[in-house]
Amino acid sequence: MKTKKIELSTLAEMKRQGTAITMVTAYDAPTARLVDEAGVDTVLVGDSVANVVLGYADTVAISMEEMLHHTRAVSRGLTRALLIGDMPFMSYNVTVEQAIENAGRFMKEGRAQAVKLEGGGWVADTAAAMVKAGIPVVGHLGLTPQTAGMLGGYRVQGKDAQSARQIFDDALALQAAGAFALVLECVPDRLGELISKRLEIPVIGIGAGANTDGQVLVFHDLVGIKAGFSPKFVKQYAQAGQILQDAVADFCAEVRQRTFPAEEHSFRIADDQFAALEAALNKNTSGS
Ligand code: KIV
Q: Pocket residues for ligand 1 (CB within 6 Å)?
């Protein structure tokens, strides 16, 4: 597995070479270590941590402090992959100053190498100001979960000519603003391909077909931990949820049968040591 640290320039070069870029989410240090060692190129501390891990109904409620907490944890587990922090709803939407300050916190406190923000042309000025301040930015277009309500819910975007054109124009605006990559979520595969071909920056798809410059999946979806509804674009590469549940059930059964812990899980002392120890205990309890 390659060990050279992934930089922004690595991703640009991968696009030039036609090498597919991999991105997965992670929300804690052990998962970060695991995906890093598996060879993933970029790790996103997605605001999906809100519903995937923290039990929120959607991503809207999560705070800057919660995102920073998880980003810091992930940074401690990475050595190779590029770390991207996801800016939560309303952390970049009020003023440009607020956006720069919060994005700066992702880098200074969260130790992220870049931030991601959702939205099109209307966040381009904000993205440009962040880039000018020295903060690398990833855009996010198509289905943008923070504003899913305004898009008619969690549904495929860009299916008609007008909305496809809008997504394309937004992508160009983000590129012109200096974004170094774009996440494109839930659009028809041929639109994903078209936008990837027309943009100079890498386009990382999720539900955007096979011909984008890279692919991103939520870790819990990929390994089959998440319960409930799974979107069409998810492929489960393992059923880790079942494996974990079976392991815990086996633990419960062995504890109840008193077959765990076994001798190899216990700390043993020699008979004479134990005799001395028992005598000392007896002495104390008798008070003599
Ligand atoms: O929050 C997230 O996990 C994301 C990915 C699905 C791209 O934005």
A: 25, 44, 46-48, 86, 183, 206, 216, 218
- Output the CA 248–ligand 1 centroid distance in Å: 29
Of the candidates 183, 20, 4, the residue with the CA atom closest to the CA atom of residue 82:
4
pLDDT over threshold 60, residue 192: yes
Domain that holds residue 15: 8-241
pLDDT digit string (tens) for 219-275? 999 999 977 788 999 999 999 999 999 999 999 999 999 999 999 999 999 999 999
Residue 248 shares a structural domain with residue 113:
no
CA atoms within 13 A on the CB side of 218: 20
Tally of structural domains, the chain: 2
What are the tokens at 255?
A: 């504890």
Q: Choose the residue to mutate in 21, 66, 144, 185 for probing ligand 1, maximizing ligand atoms within 8 Å of C-beta.
A: 185
Are both 100 and 202 inside the same structural domain?
yes
pTM: 0.94
Rounded distance from Cα 44 to ligand 1 centre (Å): 7
Residue type, 56: Y
Q: What is the CATH number of the domain that holds 143?
A: 3.20.20.60
